[in-house]
Amino acid sequence: MSNELNIEIRDLRYFETIAELKHLGQASEVLHRSQPALTKCVQRLENELGAALFERKGRGLELTAVGKEFYLRAKKICETNDRYLSDMKGFIEGSTGKVRVGCGPITADYLLPIICNLALKHAPNVALEIMIGTNYVLKEQIRQERLDLIVGVVSDDNEFVSQAFIDDIVVVAARKGHPVFDMPRLSLEHLLNYHWILPTPPVESRKWLDNAFASRKLAKPAAHIETNSLPSIHDLIGSTDLLCFLSRLTLEHPKTRGLLQEVALEETTMTRQLGITYPHGSLTPATLRLIELLDEYHSSGPRGDSA
After folding, report:
1. What is the CATH number of the domain that holds 227?
2. Measured between alpha carbons, how far is 225 from 241 in angstroms, rounded to an integer?
3. Contacts 24+ apart (CB under 8 A), 124-129
4. How many structural domains comprise the chain?
5. Does residue 182 fall inside a structural domain?
6. What CA–CA distance (Å, rounded) separates 47 from 61?
7. Same domain, yes or no: 284 and 140
8. Contact call for residues 197 and 230 (beta carbons, < 8 A)
9. 250, exposed or middle or buried, with CB in 10 Å at 0-12, 13-18, 19+?
10. What is the pLDDT of residue 255?
11. End-to-end distance of the chain based on CA atoms, in angstroms?
């Protein structure tokens, strides 16, 4: 004998009202259904369960022992159904759900706090899952559908949709007191006299810097250390004579504690933009809501104290 029950949620709702009012006529008025229709509802449930749910008591109805237990379960089923349907409505509206956000090392300090604050304020039931990494790693995560959007450096390629929000300047930097600052007429060639700590070769800023030297028929900078997260090792940069290629945002951040200083050269000054990147095609409503919040924030002009 199968234990599966073929019961419609509508019948459970009707049964719940009848059980609470204990009167078929009153339930008929509340539900705007005829008494015969409600009688058939009870019969369908009793036939499916193989047991009586009500017994007559005067002009009203009283739940049987089976009916009392079934009422408790029916009520939970209806409540759970309502909750999940409400969650689905919230999902469609973008007020609930999860957004998987990839974030670059720079934007972890500058744009990520803005995103988190916007979500907490305007979409408190949207959960954020955050992954920190370089853009080329994060883009692969989007290709594999493991991320919904990236907050970081935006590029002009057509593979993804990109929206730029703020400009970012990347410059050569060194510890304060570095010998490079003693040169009266600093040139690009002088920078080749030092070892560097640089992003790994696939990173766009590393490609740009190598090309800045190669396009002028010079050797590429000698990378003594390569890393995918320069901003997180500022203490190392500040305690050595290694040159680095960093965002000015990092140089100005309180966590550098004045350790680093820009090596001012026009040839090694790179301008890029920070913003969001996401795939073409359908996005979850929560992702669209987050993008909308970011658009509104940056269109209105405030920059806040997110750093």
Report:
1. 3.40.190.290
2. 12
3. 125/90, 125/95, 125/96, 126/94, 126/95, 126/96, 126/97, 126/98, 126/99, 126/286, 126/289, 126/290, 127/97, 127/98, 127/99, 128/98, 128/99, 128/101, 129/98, 129/99, 129/100, 129/101
4. 3
5. yes
6. 18
7. yes
8. yes
9. buried
10. 72
11. 65
Cα distance between residue 272 and residue 266, in whole Å = 15
Domain membership flag for residue 198: yes
Instruction: Based on the fold, state whether residues 13 and 53 are members of the same structural domain.
Output: yes
Domain membership of residue 225 (yes or no) is yes
Position of tokens 């009283």?
62
In the prediction, which pLDDT does 90 show?
67
In this prediction, the residues of the chain whose per-residue pLDDT falls under 70 are 1-3, 86-87, 90, 93-95, 230-232, 257, 301-307
Q: What is the residue range of 64's domain?
A: 9-89
User: pTM of the entire structure?
Assistant: 0.64
234 and 176 fall within a common domain: yes
The one-letter code for the residue type at 3 is N
Q: How far is CA 11 from the centre of its chain?
A: 40
- CATH number, domain containing residue 142: 3.40.190.10
What local confidence, expressed as pLDDT, does residue 156 receive?
81
Is residue 267 situated within a structural domain? yes
Are 69 and 148 part of one and the same domain? no
